[in-house]
Amino acid sequence: MQPHRTIKLPRTPTGHDHRNQTRHRTLCHVAARPQCVLGPSVGMICGGIDLGGTKIEARLFDAAMVTVRTRRIPTPGSDFDSFIAALTDQILWLQGQADDAALPVAISIAGVIDPQTGLATAANIPVSGRNIGAALKEGLGRDLPLINDCMAFTYSEACGGAGDGAESVLGLILGTGVGAGLVQNGRFPPRHAGLAVEIGHLGVPARALARHDLPLWDCGCGRTGCYENYVSGTGLTRLAEWAGSAVTDPASIAASDDPKARRVMQIWADLTGEMLYTAQIMLDPAVIVLGGGLSNIPDIDSRLSAALSRLRLAGARLPQIRPARHGDSGGARGAALMARAGLV
């Protein structure tokens, strides 16, 4: 890693028109082709933090939303105070790199923040039942908004990403787990409990399991038969083991010519198509953007488009399925965009 240096980027001139500022803070123009308004294009930089179970990654973006600085540290796994100290250190690093203690910063988190109580729920981060925002404010003297990682990913792809210009975008993350977010006309729909689109914890239809003689598998959420058990990266490996394939690594399964591995990929695509069918009939997105490790499977967009086409309602137009444009930076970029626009 190259040594970091402090950068001084141009600031917004003083004496600016506050009416313009208000206009820049409007999220989108709701028109025939919705577009997110990113805020001032000169002198405006922002920071985003991607907070996951293994790493806390801070990214500083310039006015064109290009990453100019990145720093990654491990996520403390068991102690809330150590976790807050590490997260605070990343925020201070961003402020120092920008030479701006008021730098717009937001945090993408792999978990749920209750909008009423501010309390967090997360599987792999030591924050459940704690108020991360309040702890950060106590130490830093400022509000640092937190956004679900699937929602941040989707916002990034809806604004200058693979879903740019579409009036409704579903961002689907196919990684170790399965999650999704939804942006409509450049905005998030209202969410009562702070949940994203928890599509990974819907049950696979009995008809789909019966087609392949698949068993019901228990899920970590306490239920059985959740999509996440079958179509996540972990689920793909589990399918391969169930089928007796000698190839069990997700990337290797997708590339293998072994008959059992090919069958596993056919089952996986069929079940993922069922999940997308559920998303279409419930949410009717114009574009579905794929992220996470499984989005790197060759031709995944055409595979899943074909699977969805076989299941769709008669006469219903299909959504476009596209790979993500911003890759691993999506969560931090989406959070930074929202902080920059003053929307969180």
TrEMBL record:
<dbReference type="InterPro" id="IPR043129">
    <property type="entry name" value="ATPase_NBD"/>
</dbReference>
<keyword id="KW-0418">Kinase</keyword>
<keyword id="KW-0119">Carbohydrate metabolism</keyword>
<keyword id="KW-0808">Transferase</keyword>
<dbReference type="InterPro" id="IPR000600">
    <property type="entry name" value="ROK"/>
</dbReference>
<keyword id="KW-0067">ATP-binding</keyword>
<dbReference type="GO" id="GO:0005524">
    <property type="term" value="F:ATP binding"/>
</dbReference>
<keyword id="KW-0479">Metal-binding</keyword>
<protein>
    <recommendedName>
        <fullName>N-acetylglucosamine kinase</fullName>
        <ecNumber>2.7.1.59</ecNumber>
    </recommendedName>
</protein>
<dbReference type="GO" id="GO:0046872">
    <property type="term" value="F:metal ion binding"/>
</dbReference>
<dbReference type="GO" id="GO:0045127">
    <property type="term" value="F:N-acetylglucosamine kinase activity"/>
</dbReference>
<dbReference type="Pfam" id="PF00480">
    <property type="entry name" value="ROK"/>
</dbReference>
<keyword id="KW-0862">Zinc</keyword>
<feature type="region of interest" description="Disordered">
    <location>
        <begin position="1"/>
        <end position="22"/>
    </location>
</feature>
<keyword id="KW-0547">Nucleotide-binding</keyword>
